[in-house]
Amino acid sequence: MADKRNNPDQQDRQTGVLTKTRKKTRKPHMFKVLLMNDDYTPMEFVVYVLEKCFSKGREEATTIMLHVHQRGVGVCGVYSREIAEAKVAQVLDLAHRHEHPLQCTMEQE
Ligand code: TYC
User: Fold this and answer.
1) Measured distance CA(25)–CA(80) in Å, rounded
2) Ligand 1 pocket residues where CB is under 6 Å
3) E strand or H helix at 31, and its extent?
4) Number of the ligand 1 atom closest to the C-alpha atom of 103
5) Edge-to-edge strands of the sheet including 73-80?
6) 105 alpha carbon – ligand 1 mean position (Å)
């Protein structure tokens, strides 16, 4: 039987404290933020969103917008869960305030 002083995974019978520890660190899940095409949002507005919310330059923003326009969906960036959630909320809020139907979602990589 292992000595509990050297085995943190064992229950301490005197105090009832569980000290189970994870041996490996896990890298956080990453999430793609996706932009959806629609028939009404102006191309210029989508480029503006990509510049403002995703820090893209004019050229890359235009390339991503045209990809979404032609293929139906495209990746704006890849982030941790919290950052991706904030980006999606920011895009939807901006689109709503400008009365555009632009849709944005996230998907685990
Ligand atoms: N399809 C839109 C138009 O022709 C442009 C557009 C591109 C809209 C990308 C949304 O995510 C989008 N005005």
Assistant:
1) 16
2) 35-39, 41-43, 46, 65, 68-69, 102
3) strand 30-36
4) 11
5) 73-80, 30-36, 104-108
6) 15
Whole-number Å distance, alpha carbon 53 to ligand 1 midpoint, is 17
Encode pLDDT of 86-108 as tens digits.
999 999 999 999 999 999 999 99
Helical segments of 19-80, H only: 43-54, 58-71
Regarding predicted confidence, which is higher, 108 or 13? 108
Tens of pLDDT, residue by residue over 41-83, are: 999 999 999 999 999 999 999 999 999 999 999 999 999 999 9
Amino acid (1-letter code) at residue 21:
T
